[in-house]
Amino acid sequence: MSLLSSSLLDRATYPCPVCRRGEIQPLPLMEACGCNFCQHIFTVDLETEVLRMADREPPLSWHWDGRQWTGAHLAGVEFNWLYGVAAIAFLGLPTGIIGLGAIYFRRFPAVPSIGCRLFGSA
Ligand SMILES: [Zn+2]
Fold it and tell me: Residue 93's domain spans which residues?
């Protein structure tokens, strides 16, 4: 099944969805396409009308809407609420520890800062 004989892909070249500068062209003697600018390799699934980046794991995939590639999706990866909880914990836990440390050590007698000594104020 050639890339050029498809009803989905009736043009000779397509814009690259990754770099948006190069063009995707069929690679000779292969069932794959390549960008002439960023050198990424793609495979075309004609049944689902999806372009997949073959040199990345998990592969990104795009759908051709007739004018441009739309929707960069990670194939086989679904995000659920656990990723949100993990992201909040990843951002909030270190910040919380530092914040609690600052509140806890603020209770001890204050040490004059260097800035106060340099400018002569008490
Ligand atoms: Zn490219």
Answer: 81-110
